[in-house]
């Protein structure tokens, strides 16, 4: 059953999500009205209920749900790219991750969800406004307990951690390597997320010159399938280019 204070969402038959934090008191949900929290707190994940004549299902959110619900400022790293970063950087519970650039906190959310409860994420961000947006988003989901940050330029800021993975979302990651690589343990993995091919060449060559192992780059394209009775076809629209991912592993 849901716990008091837990963040959940109600979804209607049209796919619209209504977010709320479970309490035993009366809850005001925009476009639905007043709801008795006791009717929700005793339900299980995936239970159906009726509110104001509408049939809804209540779910405990996953990482993708949390990312989709973020208040956005800067452009986010999408789930398709975030999933590849987690897998290719072997980010798991207990790890320490150094993140460069937080945007609106989408990747930060994915990273913390992967390393909790024993790991942590430390972010270096140049723009204070982005940190404030991310902090607001993380506090809403309770993930802020595993997050620390500092404001500064990745090319010269002093960072006092030893990370299992270094994830960079800045335009010129190759210029920050000299400063940040001492913060990445031997055997640790790096990822740079960049939008342009000329930037791919710069960071790939920079990593190869520093004797990184298994340096490679990829682009992830995503297309849904339209499934109807009697016919299946690819969707006309797809989530195409969002950015290039460059990976590598540090040698001693």
Would you mind describing this structure in some detail?
With 252 residues, the chain is α/β, with parallel strands linked by helices. It is 24% helix and 33% strand. It has a 7-stranded mixed sheet with strand order 9-8-7-10-11-15-12, sandwiched between helices. Strand 1 and strand 2 form a beta hairpin. The chain is globular and about 65 Å long. 33% of the residues are buried.
Number of strands: 15
What is the distance, rounded to the nearest whole angstrom, between the alpha carbons of the first and last residues?
A: 48 Å
Report the sheet with the most strands, covering strand number, pairing sense and barrel closure. 7 strands, mixed
- As a whole number of angstroms, the C-alpha radius of gyration is 21 Å
Instruction: State the helix count.
Output: 7
Mean pLDDT: 92
Please provide the ordered H/E string of secondary-structure elements: EEEEHEEHHEHEHEEHEHEEEE
Proportion in β-strands: 25-35%
Structural class: alpha/beta
Low-confidence blocks of residues: none
What share of the residues lie within helices?
10-25%
Q: Characterize the overall form.
A: globular
Kindly report the spatial arrangement of strands forming the biggest sheet: 9-8-7-10-11-15-12
- Specify the oligomeric state: single chain
